[in-house]
Write a structure and sequence with these properties.
This protein has 1 helix and 5 strands, in the order E-E-E-H-E-E. By secondary structure, the protein is an alpha+beta fold. Strands 3-2-1-5-4 form a 5-stranded antiparallel β-sheet, with helices on one face.
């Protein structure tokens, strides 16, 4: 499975996120991390698509990137990109700590 980047590409209506914000995750079920906090509602919508993207499933979009709409009818559109690197746990994660 590959590391993923989630990015806001369009914004419609009221939303705490802005176009250009992005988050990365080394694991499909782990909440993506970035400079800002991804809201829980968006994360729950993204979970199945993060899993498919990390597993190598193909998007239905012409450009091959996953584009997923926020649960709000006037929310934002996320783009999920598969990065060219394998799992790397964030340094602040309990999973990244080595046993001594």
């Amino acid at each position: 499975m590959k590391q993923l980047r989630v990015r806001v590409v369009q914004k419609h209506g009221k939303c705490p996120h802005e176009v250009g914000e992005s988050w990365e995750t080394p694991y499909a079920l782990m909440k993506p991390t970035g400079k800002t906090l991804l809201c829980d509602d968006a994360h729950y919508v993204l979970i199945p698509y993060l899993g498919m993207a990390a597993g190598g499933a193909h998007s239905w979009e012409v450009d091959g990137l996953w584009k997923i709409h926020c649960p709000s009818k006037s929310g934002i559109i996320f783009e999920i990109e598969t990065l060219d690197k394998d799992h790397q746990w964030p340094e602040n994660s309990d999973w990244s700590k080595k046993e001594e």
